[in-house]
């Protein structure tokens, strides 16, 4: 099951191209790592949702972006009359197929529209790839004698070999950031 943003034009056969993605702003000057400033910068990229407050030394923002639109790679910031070119790094951007409007693959891999053959699932020990399989492990000997063998679920990961279908052109956007109290 996938969860995605609801819209009034919802149809069960089409997934939304709007997804939340973590965005890093590497080497953002320390005096700009503030919630209000980071929200202004994130608003240029998409719709800011939340700031990662677990790492105060690194500027990270969760932003809603539209996968059908080009993603900004850089943002120009005007700070106290000086222009700073801020690099933007996206983390784990999902693939989106503009042909069948589903998340998880790109148009060149879309079998539902006939651009690629239907994938065959490889089996791992008689199970489908990506299936949960039980793992045997030995119990420890305790006060009541040896414990019986217990099972623990182990996930067999599915490898993703597709490259992200994004536009790599540099885009520049002007943003006036008024920094006060520094």
What does it look like?
This protein starts with 17 loop residues before the first strand and ends in a 6-residue tail after the last strand. Helices cover 6% and strands 34% of the residues. It has a domain at 1-118. The chain is mainly beta and 182 residues long. β4 (74-79) and β5 form a beta hairpin. The protein has one helix at residues 35-45, and strands at 18-24, 47-51, 60-66, 74-79, 82-87, 89-91, 96-97, 102-103, 123-124, 127-128, 132-137, 141-142, 145-146, 150-155, 174-176.
The overall strand count is 15
- What is the N-to-C order of secondary-structure elements (H for helix, E for strand)? EHEEEEEEEEEEEEEE
* Physical arrangement of strands within the biggest beta sheet: 2-3-1-6
Average pLDDT works out at 71
What class would the helix/strand composition place it in? mainly beta
Characterize the overall form.
elongated
Strand content: 25-35%
Taking the alpha carbons of the first and last residues, their distance comes to 47 Å
Sheet having the most strands: 4 strands, antiparallel
Number of helices: 1
CA gyration radius, whole angstroms: 23 Å
| Approximate helicity band | under 10%
> Uncertain spans, ≥5 residues at pLDDT below 50?
141-175, 178-182
